[in-house]
Amino acid sequence: MGKDYGREFWNKAKIYHFIGKDIVYHHYLFLPAMRMGEGSFKLPDYIPTRGHLLLQGHKFSKSRGWYVSLREFLNLFPADYLRFYLALITPYSQADVNFDWDEFQSKINSELINNIGNFIHRTLTFTWRSFNGRVPKPGGYDELDSEMLIQIKDLEVDLTKLMDSLEFDKALRRIIEFSSFCNQYFQRKEPWKTVDPNCIYLSINATRTLAIVLDPFIPFSMRKLWNMLNMPGNIHNEYWSTAFKLEVREGHEISKPQPLFRRIEDDEIKAQKEKLKTIEDKNQL
C-alpha cells in the first residue's frame, strides 16, 4: 500500500526538478525516457535550471583548495546569511553566479541588517518600551496609515506571482523594497513624538508579514522573530495567505526583543580574502 500511495501522490503532485546546467541532458532526455519506459510515473512539470556557482570569479576546486567548506562557513556566519545572499544573487537563468566576499558583506549589512533588521528592531523595541510590550488599539487611519495598508496588499499580489514563477531573487528584492517602505513609514510617522498607536499597530503587523514571507529564505531567523512576536504555533506551518492580514490584535503581548542579526565586520572578510589570495598565488588561478 505504501508503494502505491507513493506513486499516486507523485502523479497528482506538481513536480519541480531544480538542476544545474551541467546535467541538463540527463534530466531533459535520459530521465524522462526512463520514466516513459517504466510507464507508471508522470514526468516533471518544470525543470528550473541554474548556472554554476563561482567563488571570487573562479570555479570551485577542492583539489586546488579553491573553496569554502560549509562547515567552516557555518562556524563563522549564520546559515541564514548564506541563504539570503545566494537567493538574492541567483537569477532564474543558466547564468553563472559569483560568490564575492565583499558583496556578501555588503548585502548582509545593508539589505538584511540596515533595512529589514532595522525596521524589525525599531518596531519591537518601541512597542516594548512605550507600550509595555502590548500592541496598542488603533484609531482612525490617516493618509500614511492607508498607504501602509495598500503596500501590504500590493505585496501579496506581487510576491505571490514572483514565488509561483520561481523568480526567488526578484521576490526577495520585492520584500526588501517593502521593508524600505516600512522604514520610511515609521520615520514619517515619528511615533517617538506622538506615541502614535496606529504606527505601532500597523508596524507590528507588517513585522509579522515580513516574518512569514521571509521564512522560506531565512527560516532560522524568522523562527526567532516569531517567538519574539509571541505568535502561536510554528511559523513554518503558517499559511502564506495569512501573511497579508492584520492578525496581531490590540492587547497582544510580545516577548522581550533580542538582537536578531549581527553585522559582518571588515576583519572577518579580510581574513577570508587573504586566505584565498594565498591559494590564488600558489595555484596561479
Can you walk through the features of this model?
The mean pLDDT is 93. The termini are far apart. The protein is built from 11 helices and 5 strands. The relative contact order is 0.12. The chain is globular, with a radius of gyration of 23 Å. It is mostly helical and 285 residues long. It has 2 domains: 2-99, HUPs (Rossmann fold), CATH 3.40.50.620; 106-244, Orthogonal Bundle (Isoleucyl-tRNA Synthetase, Domain 1). A 3-stranded mixed β-sheet has the order 4-3-5.
Predict the CATH topology of the largest domain: Isoleucyl-tRNA Synthetase, Domain 1
- How is the biggest beta sheet arranged? 3 strands, mixed
Q: For the CA atoms, what is the radius of gyration?
A: 23 Å
CATH superfamily of the largest domain: Isoleucyl-tRNA Synthetase, Domain 1
Structure characteristics:
285 residues, Isoleucyl-tRNA Synthetase, Domain 1, 2 domains, 59% helix
Q: What would a concise description of this structure say?
A:
The protein has 285 residues and is mainly alpha-helical.
Per-chain topology:
Elements: H1 2-12, E1 19-20, H2 24-38, E2 49-50, E3 53-55, E4 58-59, H3 70-76, H4 79-89, E5 97-99, H5 101-130, H6 143-164, H7 168-189, H8 191-194, H9 197-214, H10 219-229, H11 266-283
Parallel strand pairs: 1-2, 3-5
Antiparallel strand pairs: 3-4
Helix pairs in contact: 4-5, 4-7, 5-7, 5-9, 6-7, 6-9, 7-9, 9-10
